[in-house]
Structure formats: C-alpha cells, structure tokens
Design goal:
Distance between the termini: 42 Å
CATH topology: Rossmann fold
Mean pLDDT: 92
Radius of gyration: 19 Å
CATH class: Alpha Beta
Structural class: alpha/beta
Number of helices: 14
Largest sheet: 5 strands, parallel
Strand content: 5-15%
Number of strands: 5
Strand order of the largest sheet: 2-3-1-4-5
Number of domains: 1
Length: about 280
C-alpha cells in the first residue's frame, strides 16, 4: 500500500509535539511511539559534528535505510500517512527532501523569544527512564553503544554542572559547543532557534510550494479549528466539524508572549539582539 510521509519541520519548543499529537489522532495517520528518531536520520553520518548534515553526505545506502524505517512502520500500521517530527531536521531540510521528495512538509514557526525560555527548561530537564528507553528502541543497532555512552556522558556533565544543565540539548548547530562555553543559556537557546529558522528559510526554496504547509504557532493556537480545516484540505482528507472540535479541544494560547514573564529585561534585550533579523524574515 502506498503512503505519504508527513514531515513536521520546526525548532524545538515551537509546537511540533502539539501538531504531531493532533495530526496522529486522525484515522490513517501514524507515527513512532517515541518523541524523535534523530539516530535514524543520522544513520551513516553518526560522527558528523552537527545536525546540519549537507546533501553531499547522503548516499544510496543511507537513503534506502531511512526509507526502510518508514516503510516498516507503514507495513505494521497500514497507515495512509506516516508522520514524523524530529526538530533537528529544521537544520537539514534539503537533506531530508532528497530522501523524501514526495513527502508533505509541515513547517511550523513560533516567535523565537517565546521559544527561548521554553527551551531553557528542557536544557535542565531531569532524567526520564521510560522516555529514554522508548527512544533507544529506534537507534540503529550498529550505533547503539555510541548513543548510550553519549547520553550517559551528557547526564554526568549535568550532575556536575553548576547550573544543572545538559552539555547539549536539541538540534546541534554549527558553533553550539563554543556558544555553550562562552554564552549564557538564554543566548544559546536564542541562537539555536535562529539557526533552525534560518536553515529552514534557506532550504525550503528547493521544495515545491505544493509540498509545503506553513503554520504559525500563534495563529494555530488562537484559530485551531480553521487551521485544522486548512490542514485537512492540504492532505486531501475529510474531517467532520465534530472531529475537528475534538482534535483541538485542548489547544491553548496561554504560551503566547511568555518571554515577557519568564525573562528579565536584560535577558530579553540579549535574546532580541540575536533573533530580531530572523523574526523580521518570518514577519514577526
């Protein structure tokens, strides 16, 4: 049975989880039972220093392996649409498109100033065994030891850190190691969002517009019903008014503008200096 991949593209803490969970509540839409599958996307490029994997690093073997993981999930679920959300893909959209030129790409943007304090919380998140074990299930066998040891080292560094923050979290952009050593956490998180957004702006040019569904987080959470109608039209599926109401019943707009409450004036000034040009490109 043929299926269509739906790949959600967005920085961490930009609403990607919300979108995935809503979309996969529709009959015929399925996803993995874990948060992200970055080790699958990095297959064959495990040792590349960042998540900004260039198209030149894609080989027929890598493409075949990644597509086989999607095919396997479809065979097991009989889904018409396979939905995937790995935030690091926002750094390498051109690479992803080369693997899945037939996919539908849902690109979500959120105000980077609000993303920043939300991401800061994730950098300091505590260890969750169940969550971690689910993700490890989808690590390629040949890479299992590498990711287990990498995860362990990251957690040990968190324990020894004065701020109790991880040495890395989320999409790894070029220069993140230097930023972590020399910048405050709010500046790192703002830079992380900026790199994700800028790379997506750059790479989306190579994707036909008919394959792209643009979502603005702030619009979605304030007008979820009309946004879901747009999405249904994009995918060519029929959703009843009752089903749409059920899908978006828990959507809330309370996270809009949270940076004003969660960051102090100096932090806001620093974050705005980093994000302002990219925000302007996205019409914020």
């Amino acid at each position: 049975m043929e299926y269509t991949p739906i790949i959600i593209i967005g920085s961490g803490r930009s609403g990607t989880n919300m979108l995935r969970d809503i979309i996969t509540s529709i009959d015929g839409f399925e996803t993995w039972d874990c948060d992200e599958i970055n080790p699958v996307w990095r297959y064959g490029n495990r040792d590349f220093p960042t998540d900004e994997i260039p198209v030149e690093k894609l080989t027929p073997k890598i493409k075949k392996y990644i597509r086989s993981r999607f095919n396997g999930l479809q065979r097991g679920t009989k889904a018409k649409f396979i939905v995937e959300k790995t935030c690091a893909n926002s750094l390498r959209l051109a690479y992803i498109f080369k693997i899945f030129p037939e996919a539908k790409y849902v690109i979500i943007n959120r105000d980077g100033r609000d993303v920043t304090p939300s991401a800061m919380k994730r950098w300091g998140a505590s260890f969750e065994l169940k969550y971690t074990l689910k993700k490890l299930r989808y690590v390629p066998i040949i890479d299992l030891f590498y990711y287990v040891s990498r995860f362990g080292i990251n957690r040990l560094k968190q324990i020894g850190s004065k701020e109790k923050s991880l040495s890395f979290w989320g999409p790894l952009y070029e220069g993140i190691d230097t930023d972590v050593m020399n910048k405050s956490l709010h500046e790192v998180c703002a830079s992380q969002w900026t790199h994700c957004a800028e790379n997506t702006i750059r790479d989306r040019v190579g994707i036909p517009e008919k394959h792209i569904f643009d979502v603005r987080y702030e619009t979605f959470v304030t007008q979820p019903k009309s946004e879901m109608k747009r999405f249904a039209s994009f995918c060519g599926v029929n959703l009843s008014e009752e089903k749409i109401n059920d899908l978006v019943k828990n959507v809330s707009d309370r996270s809009i503008g949270t940076h004003k409450k969660q960051l102090n004036s100096e932090e806001i000034k620093a974050v705005e200096a980093i994000t302002k040009d990219t925000l302007a490109k996205l019409n914020y």
